[in-house]
Amino acid sequence: MAETIVTPKKYMKYLGIWIDDKTIFDEHIERTCKKADRQVTALTKILPNIRGPGSNKKVLYGVVPSVLLYAAPVWARNGFGRRVHLDNLEGVTEADKLRERETTVNEWQDRWERNHSTAQWTKRLIPHIKSWLKCDFKTLNYYVTQALTGHGSFRMYTLRIEKSRNDLCKYCGERDDPKHTDFECNRWHAQRTGLETYFGAQITPENLLETMVRNRRSWTEGVT
Questions:
Q1: Gap between the Cα atoms of 77 and 83, Å rounded
Q2: What residue numbers bound the domain in which 34 lies?
Q3: Which helix (H) or strand (E) holds 149?
Q4: Taking the model in full, what pTM does it have?
Q5: DSSP-based three-state secondary structure for 175
Q6: Which of 141, 176, 183, 206 is buried most deeply by CB count within 10 Å?
Q7: Contact status, residue 124 vs residue 201, Cβ threshold 8 Å
Q8: What is the 3-state secondary structure (H, E, C) of 97-119?
Q9: Does residue 114 sit within a domain?
Q10: Do 53 and 16 have their domain in common?
C-alpha cells in the first residue's frame, strides 16, 4: 500500500448486488429495474400482439420476477424495499402497514392525476386507483385486458402495428378504437343495453369500472 492512494467508490458490486456507501441500495434497485425492463421489452417482441402469449411463452415471464427479487432479503430492509417487505420487519404494527399503504396509494393517485402523456385511456377508465385496488373479486382475462389498455383487436391499434390496412370498424365503417367498440358500435348495442338495464344507468368510460367494482355480481355482468 505504502504511498498508494485508495479512493473509495460510491458503489460496488458484490455477488450480484450493488452496494452503496449509505447501504440504502438505491443504485441496486435502479439498475435492477432497468434490467427487468429490458427483459420485458425483449419478451414483448417475441409475443403475438393480437391473440396473447401461448403457455410456453408465459413461462418466460417468470424470469422477470427472478431478476427483480434476486437477493431481496439483503436489500429489502432499506430504501424502496421498506414498503414492499413490511411483513419482514420487527416492531411493525398493522396500523403502521395501513398508514404506509395509504401513503403509497395517495402518492400513486397524485402521480396518476398529473400524468397527461401515457395510458390516458386506462386513466379514463380507472380514474380512482383506491376503489380499483380495494376490489378483491376482480379478475382479468384476455378481453378485459384489451379493453383496459386499448391494445388488442381494435383497428386503430392493429393499423399502428401494421396488422391491418386501415383503422375502420369492420361492422360499421367508423374509426375503431376501444371507445367505439365498447361504447358506440351498433354491433354490440344489445349487450350494452342489457348491461345498462342491469346497472340502471347509461354506461360511459368514466363510470363503467367504478360501477363494476361495487360488488361481485356487477363485475361478473360487466365482463360477460
A1: 9
A2: 9-92
A3: helix 142-149
A4: 0.64
A5: strand
A6: 176
A7: no
A8: HHHHHHHHHHHHHHHHHHCCCCC
A9: no
A10: yes
